[in-house]
Design brief:
single chain; alpha+beta; Thiol Ester Dehydrase, Chain A; five-stranded antiparallel β-sheet; two-stranded antiparallel sheet; 5 helices; PTE-AB_protein; HotDog_dom_sf
């Protein structure tokens, strides 16, 4: 409860939940099967049995000290940008108090697949229909445990973009905006 309160008190959360300047951000829960109909303000959600199976992020890591509360995704259907806010706990560390690089890669992988499924430039709305073919990470600073991470994702202009491929770019920041 306390973490959820802290999440909802973050300035970036407040900015996206109460958008200004006609920016339309939709708040989504990241561990559910999201359907584009939600973005079209329709209430039907596909209920598929494969989404009830335990996965690394929604089962194994969803424990105290791991990913205790559900990450929140904000998606802008006009600009096709995504913002994911996730709390990372001490059990995700490789070195004391520093989040393991493999965990950061896992979070980016999940974020890319989710944003690809929500993109207006792709044809499938199921996250598991996408795979990350190439993931390059430039670490700028250590990512410390027990904090909220803000992952901002957007489509990157690339000659590789076509009906079957989309190039996305993300930046991981602290809640105060420091790039990690």
């Amino acid at each position: 409860m306390q973490l959820e309160y802290k999440l909802k008190s973050l300035p970036i959360y407040q900015k996206l939940i109460h958008p200004k300047n006609a920016h339309q951000w939709y708040k989504l829960s990241s561990w559910e099967n999201l359907d584009r109909n939600i973005l079209d303000n329709k209430s039907s959600i596909k209920d598929q049995s494969e989404y009830h199976e335990p996965t690394l992020t929604n089962h194994t890591l969803a424990k105290p000290g791991g990913i205790l509360i559900k990450p929140v995704i904000f998606h802008n259907i006009e600009t096709d940008e995504g913002v994911t806010i996730i709390h990372v706990g001490y059990r995700l560390c490789g070195y004391p108090f520093i989040i393991h690089g493999g965990m950061i890669a896992t979070l980016l992988n999940e974020t890319f697949k989710r944003n690809a499924s929500l993109s207006k430039f792709t044809t499938s709305n199921l996250k598991d229909d996408f795979k990350v073919e190439n993931l390059t990470i430039n670490y700028r600073a250590p990512t410390f445990a027990n904090q909220f991470l803000v992952i901002k994702t957007r489509k990157k202009e690339s000659p590789e973009n076509n009906d079957k491929t989309i190039v996305l770019e993300s930046v991981i920041e602290t809640k105060k905006g420091k790039v990690l």
